[in-house]
From TrEMBL:
Gene Ontology BP terms: RNA modification
Any single Pfam family the record assigns to this protein: PPR_2
Transmembrane feature ranges: none
Native organism: Rotaria sordida
Molecular functions (GO terms): RNA binding
UniProt repeat feature PPR, residue ranges: 39-73
InterPro entries for this protein: PPR_At4g14850-like_plant (IPR046960), PPR_rpt (IPR002885), TPR-like_helical_dom_sf (IPR011990)
Annotated protein name in UniProt: Pentatricopeptide repeat-containing protein
Family annotation (PANTHER family): PENTACOTRIPEPTIDE-REPEAT REGION OF PRORP DOMAIN-CONTAINING PROTEIN (PTHR47926:SF359), PENTATRICOPEPTIDE REPEAT-CONTAINING PROTEIN (PTHR47926)
Upper taxonomic lineage: Eukaryota, Metazoa, Spiralia, Gnathifera, Rotifera
Superkingdom assignment: Eukaryota
Length: 124
């Protein structure tokens, strides 16, 4: 990969997405780790890839990293995390995540639909 590409978050985020879709989680993680200035899209691509590759628990580690870095989560990332909760079937962890979603995001239609899907998916 050329130096121009190695410093271009758009290219790197796309590479993460592509590698995850090809089930090459390790290479995607290497690219993610190489990104100097990670943004919300970088984190979202990695978390989405973990969900695709049946590694949803890794999303919670990324969430903690995002919080430590002061990254403000957007609707898209919250939606990914709700999808993660749908996969893990752990009601306490799901409630912990839901409790962190800001009210203005909870009120968005897509988030509400995802939350309904999540609660239906969880074995209570």
């Amino acid at each position: 990969m050329s130096n121009d590409c190695r410093n271009n978050n758009i290219v790197l985020n796309s590479a993460i997405d592509m590698l995850m879709k090809f089930r090459d989680v390790e290479s995607a993680e290497c690219i993610f780790d190489s990104i100097k200035k990670k943004n919300i899209i970088s984190y979202g691509a990695l978390m989405s890839g973990y969900n695709i590759n049946s590694k949803p628990w890794k999303c919670f580690k990324i969430l903690e990293e995002m919080k430590q870095q002061g990254v403000v989560l957007n609707e898209h990332v919250w939606n990914i995390l709700i999808g993660t909760c749908s996969k893990i079937d752990m009601i306490r962890q799901c409630q912990y995540i839901i409790d962190q979603i800001p009210l203005h995001i909870q009120n968005l239609k897509q988030i509400q639909i995802s939350l309904i899907h999540m609660w239906v998916s969880i074995d209570c």
